[in-house]
Amino acid sequence: MTTAAWITLFSPAAAVVVLALAGTRVSRRAAGLVATTSVLVSFIASVVAFVELLGLQIVEQMNLAVVPHATSVAACALLGERRRGLFRADLALRMQQLVDLLRIMNVKLTPALVRDEGDFSDSIASLLRMDLIRAAPDQWHLLQPNWPSDRS
Questions:
Q1: How many CB atoms lie within 10 A of CB 33?
Q2: Looking at residue 138, what DSSP letter applies?
Q3: How do the domains of the chain map onto residue ranges?
């Protein structure tokens, strides 16, 4: 949005500078084309800035109306991870970080999320029951051979 606002402001100013430096070396038709193009660029940039600002206001109003719960906090924690899957302790840590961030932003949390804060055991258990996440086997290293001697 900031870039579009600066383009809106400086596009006509740049055309004025270019035409002033060119002086009488450019025809009136070329000067008119440069001026018209700069105003068109400025208009398009102002529309872009307006749409971005309007979009930010809409998202802000939506955020005020939404109350985060354990499922959405866990989904954010999982989607923010680059690798596939998280250990339970890592998931609880990421969820706690998100809850702390939401508190800083004065977002209203559900009572269930507040009660489960810390290890999020109830929230994670309910996500497991609903099949939204699944637990990996405890001894995953026994399922896949790590060394050539493990294959035999």
A1: 12
A2: T
A3: 2-65, 70-136
Q: How many helices (H) and strands (E) does the chain have?
A: 6, 0
pTM of the entire predicted model? 0.48
* Number of Cα atoms under 13 Å in the Cβ half of residue 114: 8
Tokens of 21: 């430096």
- pLDDT tens, position by position, 23-81: 889 999 999 999 999 999 999 999 999 998 888 878 777 666 667 778 888 888 888 77
Whose CA is closest to 124, among 71, 68, 72, 67?
A: 71
With CA atoms as reference, report the closest residue to 37 among 1, 6, 7.
Answer: 7
